[in-house]
Design goal:
The complex is a heterodimer of chains A (138) and B (229).
Chain A: E1 11-15, E2 24-30, E3 35-40, E4 43-49, E5 53-59, H1 68-78, H2 80-86, H3 88-100, H4 104-137
Antiparallel strand pairs in A: 1-2, 1-5, 2-3, 3-4
Chain B: E1 11-13, E2 16-17, H1 21-28, H2 30-36, E3 89-93, E4 102-108, E5 114-117, H3 120-123, E6 128-130, E7 135-141, H4 169-181, H5 185-204, H6 208-213
Classes of the chains: A alpha+beta (138), B alpha+beta (229).
Amino acid sequence: MPFKRYVEIGRVALVNYGKDYGKLVVIVDVIDQNRALVDSPDMVRSQMNFKRLSLTDIKIDIKRVPKKKTLVAAMEAADVKGKWESSSWGRKLIVQKRRAALNDFDRFKLMLAKIKVTAAYNICYSCMLPEFVQQITI
Amino acid sequence: MAPKQKTRNPELIPGVHKVSRSQMYHKRGLWAIKAKNGGKFPVHAKQEAGAVVEEKQPKFYPADDIKKPLSNKRKPKPTKLRASVTPGTVLIILTGRFKGKRVVFLKQLTSGLLLVTGPYKVNGVPLRRVNQAYVIGTSTKVDISGVDISKFDDKYFGKQVEKKKKKGENEFFEAEKQEKNTLPAEKKDDQKAVDAPLLKALEAVPDLKAYLGARFSLKAGMKPHELVF
């Protein structure tokens, strides 16, 4: 099993620890064995330990240490946000955030909706079941 | 508040004023007062002291000096309401026979307790007082503008004073039993009067009535410190 996601200039990573937890950042330079220079449109360029980063599949095309404007333009061109939000990892995070922000009333409405869905499913399943049983026995 | 009077002689550093003594003399206009009064300060006649009345010694006084208790001018205020608890909020009651019930908050009484109602038809909670400490304030709000709650105060919820009856023992016990069990019709009417506009407001929001009818409970995986109410 070879590695697929490499630390390289332009690799988009997710911060998994610290003040910028949950942000998508771009690796803009590698400082040494443990640290990278990292940048994002909404933060000041800073160094981060690799242990704080989770690499994603997304890579953008930039030169080493680009200006902020170039970086932002490159991110727009590569549509990092769109790719992230349509990836399964990105979608999972969005769902987690939404679930965490539900208030008590929302949780109640969610419960009612779930009951409705399973009721519909059960009806569908129970009408289809005799067919399946026939097919299996034949 | 009236705006602060401008001080003529501000204290620059503790002990050091801006203006010197002679400058202050000039600033206060004492030269003008003297000039008006012909070179001297005006002198006013001394006020007549009222005739000194000799107080009579009281006939009796206690043998030992009685200590006077310290005066306490503290006026208790109703408890400060949490930011999440505002009139019309849905609250979750945490203790007592209605624990877990979701209930509408009406107003805070002068004792600090919260006046709350189910509404009664929805979840069986009547007009009731509840302590803020035993309540979770949710972020769901109900419109209570149509409800008149001005007549409710702590006295309304106080224990009823029973009239003394001079009867024989047997009759006394029977009479007591009969009176205690029923709620006076007046209170039932009050409940209906408060709940009617509330129910209309509840029906406006889908599922809200069912929400208030259900009890809150912690399920598997729910972490109260992470839940958003």
